[in-house]
Amino acid sequence: MDRTQDLDERILLQEVNEIAYTISAKMDAERPEWEPSNHEKSNWASEAAHPCNRFLVYCRLNWAERKGLDLPARYRVQDGKRYESMIRGDLEAVGYEVLLNQASFRWEAFEISGKIDGMIAPPGYSYRRLPFEIKCMGSYLYERVLRARHVRELIESPIYWIRKIPSQLNIYLLLQALPAGLLILKSQGHKPKILPMILDYDLADQNLERLISVNEHVRKKTYPPKMKYDKKLCDRCDFHHLCLPVPTQEFFQISPEIKTLLADYCEAKTGHREYTRLHAKLIGSKDDPGIFRGKNLVVDDFEISSTEFKKAGVLTTRTAIDRMVEGDLPWD
Ligand code: SF4
Hints:
Elements: H1 3-29, E1 43-44, H2 53-61, H3 71-93, E2 103-107, E3 112-116, E4 118-120, E5 130-136, H4 139-146, H5 151-155, H6 160-176, E6 180-186, E7 193-198, H7 201-220, H8 231-234, H9 240-243, H10 256-282, E8 297-299, E9 302-304, E10 307-311, E11 314-318, H11 322-326
Parallel strand pairs: 1-3, 5-6
Antiparallel strand pairs: 2-3, 4-5, 6-7, 8-9, 10-11
Residues 52, 54-55, 58, 226-227, 233-234, 237, 239-240, 243, 245 line the site of iron/sulfur cluster.
């Protein structure tokens, strides 16, 4: 490749790069931050199985302070919606008309609201209508749900995000007084998994009992205690900034001696951090030299002796600069 050709290619690459950047920026702009929606009056059906009652109360009393979705999450949600609409199309393509597509509902008695993904009316089905809930997910979660042979395995999953799927459909079934529904689970590049679900009264009791307690807190404007700290849940919680959970598993008493040791340890750690910061600024490294690297000087009350020598390509510096950390620095 001659030099002119190389230059032409670089100019072309730069031009195409700018176009790619513009497209990407326009796509981002199409996904602006969402305003939090007012959920003061009802609990989300989709969150009925959330393990933290305090979170559920925050959703009601502090809905306006809920942390919004970041940009990658907004892309994910939009992808999910596209897959949902694709699956509705697939159902219609094989002869199942989708009824009550995304119909909103509210269950006054338990202060629950949500949206039902849809219903089908399979010919000859004894109860006529069969509601369904579509959930799209990444491959990590999909591999887990793919193994399930019965919906109970989702209800008992150690992963909260999986547990909440059957709870949501169960609430629709209870509200509509329908005995069964379908979970349609999908991940990109995979055949959807269609899992039947029979109305589960035990699960309903479990979810509704907690929501009754949440409603009581909302009425009194009080908050339940924080759940035991769970890194996966609490660190991603939309109300983490209000709750400020303590990332610890257990509390125990310590003797005054151990307390002193812990305090000394924390102090030494801070000192060490400060030492590392100053060392980088004053001495630095071979690749990123500091102010005095390789110098021999007298500065104010400090004698700085620094020897550089090359050994097998390694540059080493010895200095008396540590003294400076103890006293005032001769600059700002
Ligand atoms: S941070 Fe943890 S304890 Fe606090 S509300 Fe969220 S999930 Fe519950």
